[in-house]
Amino acid sequence: MQRYILAFAGLAGAVSVGGDAAARHLLAFDAARVDLASTAARYGLIHALALLGLAALWNQTQRGTARMFLAASAWCFIGAIVLFCGSLGLMAAGFPPDLARAVPVGGSLFILGWAVLFMAAVAFVSKAPPAP
């Protein structure tokens, strides 16, 4: 799982940087489309970093509830990047605005991913030995 999280983080980061750069050069004439691409890139990069953090935590977490929550958080972020960032990026590229229907679903997955990460922290702490 750690390898997949890390691989998707790298892919999301590369696509985010490339998409933003392409939009700024190719779509400079259309501020609204540049803004869509910029938003997609910003959220993609932020959550690529979040995925890197999850990958780093993966080996620090014993099998069990905390690890299950880490995996769920990662899958929420991956789905959100695809739906939210992907839809915004495709709309910026000129695809039909019908793709906008996926944006709130992706945004909700971002929120859910952070909430599940909180639950992983609670589960991780509850298994920690008491402080001396």
Describe this structure as you would to a colleague.
With 132 residues, this protein is mainly α. The protein is 80% helix and 0% strand. Helix 1 packs antiparallel against helix 2 (31-58) and helix 1 (2-26) packs parallel to helix 3. The relative contact order is 0.15.
What are the SSEs and their pairings?
Elements: H1 2-26, H2 31-58, H3 65-92, H4 102-126
Strand content: under 5%
| Number of E strands | 0
Major sheet: none
Q: What's the Cα radius of gyration? A: 17 Å
Question: Number of folding domains?
Answer: 1
Mean pLDDT: 91
Query: How many helical stretches?
Result: 4
Order of helices and strands: HHHH
Question: What coarse outline follows from CA principal-axis ratios?
Answer: elongated
State the separation between the terminal residues, measured CA to CA.
Answer: 34 Å
The poorly predicted ranges are none
Percent helix among the residues? over 70%
| Alpha-beta classification | mainly alpha
Structure in a nutshell:
This protein has helices at residues 2-26, 31-58, 65-92, 102-126. With 132 residues, the chain is mainly alpha-helical.
Keywords for this entry:
132 residues; 0% strand
